[in-house]
Amino acid sequence: MEEILQKLNLSPVNSGAGTGTEWLECGGDILESVSPVDGRIIARVKQASNEDYERVMDRAVSAFDAWSGVPAPLRGEVVRRMGNAMRERKRDLAALLSLEVGKIRSEAEGEIQEMIDIADFATGQSRMLYGFTMQSERPGHRMYEQWHPLGPIGVITAFNFPVAVWSWNAMIALIAGDTVVWKPSSKVPLTSLATMKIVGRVIEEQGLPEGILSVVIGRGRDVGERLVVDRRLPLISATGSVAMGRKVAQAVSARLGRSLLELGGNNAVIVTPDADLSLAVRAILFGAVGTAGQRCTTTRRVIAHKSIFDSLANALVAAYRKVPIGNPLEEGVLMGPLIDREAVAKMQKALEALKAQGGRVLYGGEVLSGGLYDAGTYVTPAICEARSDYPIVRQETFAPILYMIPYETLEEAIEYHNSAPQGLSSAIFTNDLREAEYFLSHRGSDCGIANVNIGTSGAEIGGAFGGEKETGGGREAGSDVWKTYMRRQTTTINWSGEMPLAQGVRFDV
Ligand code: NAD
After folding, report:
1. Is the ipTM above a cut-off of 0.90?
2. Is the beta carbon of 240 within 6 A of some atom in ligand 1?
3. What start and end residues bound the annotated signal peptide (predicted)?
4. Which residue's CA is the nearest one to ligand 1's atom 15?
5. Model pTM score
């Protein structure tokens, strides 16, 4: 543990506020980062006080002045260097991520790879901040739109993707000319501090001002709540639970700010009669058990046709039995712990609710004990039989619980599918073209992500990521989401000697 901390320039006690090149002597309380792997304290963080927050914000505001004036392709060059710095530290950073979040090594390395990928993507994008040109109805006039940097932006992240989600925002915001103030989850502060140290070195080497990228870790929700009401931040990007998103959305809209919300999911896979069941089982297994069921895109519901329901359930139970559960840093382990004992208690409560509502646990759901398991954070993933109208099935329980729901017609399956209040990711397994197209049509899945013959989880950074309904409507990472981080300006230039008005209006004296 000490070796990883040293390699990543972390100390037993760390400053919780940094401006890229400077670390503040924070005046707040101590926060302990407890590993879900064995319940030990990894290191401590001195949290930011209100004054520290103000200092960070000041730097972010003044850095915006300088950074927004750097040509976008040169901003892209800085981001390229950040991606390379992450490449060099990928293994160490992934090891810390495993220790702090409990992700298995391969998924932790995958998360760091996402940061590298989005840096590469953003570098290319920095030369492609395109605006349209339009045909003016007035003679001798030209119309076009241009995109300007927006300002310092606030980024709030959740515990389960402690650094990748920041990078989706930060790398794109940087090439857009914005500066970024990051409030990570207090459950996992160290991985974010280590990441900031890696990118901070690039900022220093490039002779850039402090405040381009900042981090501020404060007690509980204090910093987050200050951030959302702060008028100096024209955009708040917030990732987390629906409950958090509701509060953030209200606070940001009250000041007429812009928010980008990435909230909870309740993702389903429909498995039709002629689906390739072995493919479906592999995808559902990764989707439901990967990251111990703690992904926003985790498969939480399987809507299976009655004719294949039992064979699919049996195949899934057989696959679940084989999942090695244990220390996520060990080779071969596929499922680590939940983030904390509270998450385990919530899982148990959800299983009780399921039974009370008429459902049945087909496999798993036990809290494990003995040896490392005594950390109290290890469970067996659960497969349950349920109906789509059970209240518990419509909630996101952030744990490895899979609800299996039988259906008879595809219309019924889609109705069950879309009955969840959240709308993040979805999938259908079918070899029938009409079923696949129906699912992808406007009558089909109502989610931001809809897949055919792949699972709900494990998106690539090139696509726009996010969901509808209670998931919040935000989009991050790929496609044209860079536009969210910039302000659009429509420009009309009159190069004639006349002053014609649009729509033929006359106003001459
Ligand atoms: P959470 O809502 O408890 O916390 C998320 C972040 O919000 C934390 O940094 C927290 O400190 C902050 N926060 C909480 N209340 C706040 C407030 N009133 N004002 C400002 N900030 C506040 O979520 P979590 O347990 O860390 O993460 C799990 C949740 O995140 C799940 O619901 C999951 O689906 C969701 N998630 C969504 C996505 C996505 O892209 N849609 C990605 C990852 C996680």
Report:
1. yes
2. yes
3. none
4. 244
5. 0.97
